[in-house]
Amino acid sequence: MSFRLALQESPGNPWFSWQYVRDNSDTILAALREHATLTAEAMLIATVVAVPLAVVAYWYRPLTGPILALSGVLYTIPSLALLAFVAPYVGTTNPASVLIALVLYALLLIVRNSLAGLNQVPPEARDAAQGMGYGRWGRLFRIDLPLALPGIFTGLRLATVSTVALVTVGALIGYGGLGDLILTGFRNNFYKAEILTGAVLCVGLALVLDLLLATAGRLLTPWSRRGAR
Amino acid sequence: MRAENPFQQAVTWLNDPLNWTNPGGILDRLGEHLWISAAAVALGCMVAWPIGMWLGHSGRGGSAVVMISNLTLAIPTIALLTILPLTFLGFGKPPVVVALAVFAVPPLLANAYTGVRSIDPEARDAARGMGLSGWQVLGRVELPLAVPYLAAGFRTASVQVVATAALASFVNGGGLGQIISAGFGLGIAVGGGQILAGGILVAVLAILVEALLAVVERAVTPKPLRRARGRAARRAAAATGNA
């Protein structure tokens, strides 16, 4: 954990300080980059694992119950506890600890929403696909997944926003991205400008990513714009 | 990593009676954890239930409820936990309780709103026809009929708060998370077992609370409503799942 003691001497301790942002732009950008990288990696891995998992649960109905039940129980486990389970095995000075905990969390949200999306595919559409001679895989890629995209994107958006917030928990082992700023500011004599900069950037990053995903989802599913919601 | 694996270390740590009874030991931390969580959920209920039910009663504010939920999801717990002690709340338990209450509000609010909204309009009309005023309709008809939803929201919020309360350790706010933080402070060689033991304790507590409240939720939901209500309420709460 890095402490920047030189900053303690600042006379006032305002919440907003442009001076702070300018003087520490390197640190802030590094934290922002780490935060965004961790989020992106976690989301990428989680999506690659979760969507096929949802498809498996969709194809083999008996697996739906267990997969959802497991996701429910895992989601109950506090984020800090998840980090505590992973870190002793992976190493406490390893960003992979944070990454694994994040992936586990994101996984559950994406699986649940993707499955809900797949289950909402109208039976008529499925029958029509069958009648047109689509096989199982053809139907999956041409019919089921496109129609489930709104559900999948809901999951992705929820998972992204909560992942951005959860990255900060990694600050406990020094890989929390903007969370490191927040925590360092708190430990470093309650340096308000540093705390608030971290917090504001964190919320901002979440909102920007959410907006990007919402736009992407809308562009990919032009047919759902009227009707639903 | 040492020869002994972390899990064995954790079991050893949990088996030491002093780790339970010492000042700042497991029992102390458990007490703090439960106290903080209970206070936060109570505060959240006091704020969210009246507002949610009023919004549901008047039929306005649905989009506001969703917006509040989404916005809260984006705020990192640690940011609130570090910012609030620096305001007029001061240090100690109050800022932690307030921070956790903020995260309890969305599921409570969403379920109170949905609960009142989804009441059969005929029941409401009948109550009005009997000459009940707006407040009486709210108190005698809408409130009792919304209880299953309120219970579902209470369950979601409580589990979430118990899980999130572990993060209070970032600001020395107490609770079981403190055991994990202390373990990380010791480093992996010495604290590995303690980190894992703390994680197990927090996770077990969260799952116990979840199971206990599931039973309570079931008990307060009238039998014919159980399946449909549970699913609807969970959908209303799903938008705010976060720990």
Q: What CATH architecture of chain A would you give?
A: Orthogonal Bundle
How far the N terminus sits from the C terminus of chain A, by CA atoms, comes to 46 Å
How much β-strand is present in the residues of chain A? under 5%
Helix content bin of chain B: over 70%
CATH names the topology of chain A as MetI-like fold
- Secondary-structure element sequence of chain B? HHHHHHHHHHH
Key traits:
heterodimer; A: 229 residues; mainly alpha; MetI-like fold; 9 helices; 76% helix; B: 243 residues; disordered C terminus; transmembrane (chain A)
Can you describe this structure?
- The complex is a heterodimer of chains A (229) and B (243).
- Chain A has 229 residues and is mainly α.
- Chain A has one domain (25-221): MetI-like (MetI-like fold, Orthogonal Bundle), CATH 1.10.3720.
- Helices cover 76% and strands 0% of the residues of chain A.
- The longest helix of chain A is centred in the N-terminal third of the chain and has 35 residues, at 25-59.
- Chain A is elongated, with a radius of gyration of 21 Å.
- Mean pLDDT of chain A is 84; it is low at 5-10.
- Chain B has 243 residues and is mainly alpha-helical.
- Chain B is 78% helix and 0% strand.
- Chain B has helices spanning 6-15, 17-21, 26-58, 62-74, 77-83, 93-117, 121-129, 134-164, 177-186, 188-220, 226-238.
- In chain B, helix 3 (26-58) runs parallel beside helix 6, helix 8 packs antiparallel against helix 10 (188-220) and helix 9 packs antiparallel against helix 10.
- Chain B is elongated and about 70 Å long.
- The interface between A and B is large, with 51 and 48 residues.
- Chain A: InterPro entries: ABC_transp_perm/SBD, MetI-like, MetI-like_sf.
- Chain A: Residues 32-213 form the ABC transmembrane type-1 domain.
- Chain A: Its main location: membrane.
- Chain A: Keywords: Membrane, Transmembrane, Transmembrane helix, Transport.
- Chain A: Belongs to the binding-protein-dependent transport system permease family.
